[in-house]
Amino acid sequence: MNEIENNLAFIDGQNLHMGTTLSDNPWKINLSKFKIYLEKKYEIKEAYYFLGYVQEVNQEIYSEIQKAGFILVFKQHNSIMLGKKKGNVDTDIVFEIMKKIYKRKDFDKIVLVSGDGDYKLLVDFLIEENKFKKILFPNRQYRSSLYKKLSNNYFAYLDDKDIKEKIS
């Protein structure tokens, strides 16, 4: 019998949103179904959902994300800069993963949700350290070309018909 893994998911919220709602064939993820999918398919025990910054108009979305079981993490911004730049969370995600490794937090592997090439060095490192499970690309269209040589074992597309049916 296989031992159940204790995996963590890190989701680039903006990348996930843009990759599904602004793709050639826009669609919406049901966050509750997505969380269950992550738990069952990838044995996720905690799922961190990173967003750019807090905006009062988005409180309903934040509540929806939390009700689905995700741990919300907001990027820290200087209040003067709010609204002047996008909520780039790449370094925050990389930092949080590296901090968990450094502090020897109890987990087996990482699942990353993003198509952003900025994570390529992290992905390579995690594979080397046997700490990487999968990167889930929101869609084929916006997947970074940096992942071209990545083995099929390490990625999946959320817009694949069978996955999309389970999480939309």
Tell me about this structure.
Helices cover 35% and strands 18% of the residues. The longest helix is centred in the middle third of the chain and has 13 residues. The protein is built from six helices and six strands. The relative contact order is 0.21. Strand 2, helix 3 and strand 3 form a beta-alpha-beta unit. The chain has 168 residues and is α/β, with parallel strands linked by helices. The mean pLDDT is 90. It has one domain: 3-Layer(aba) Sandwich (Rossmann fold). It has a six-stranded parallel β-sheet with strand order 3-2-1-4-5-6, sandwiched between helices.
* CATH-scheme architecture: 3-Layer(aba) Sandwich
Number of strands: 6
The SSE order reads EHHEHEHEHEEH
| CATH evolutionary superfamily | 5'-nuclease
Portion of residues in beta strands equals 15-25%
Q: What oligomeric state do the depicted chains represent? A: single chain
* Highest-level CATH class: Alpha Beta
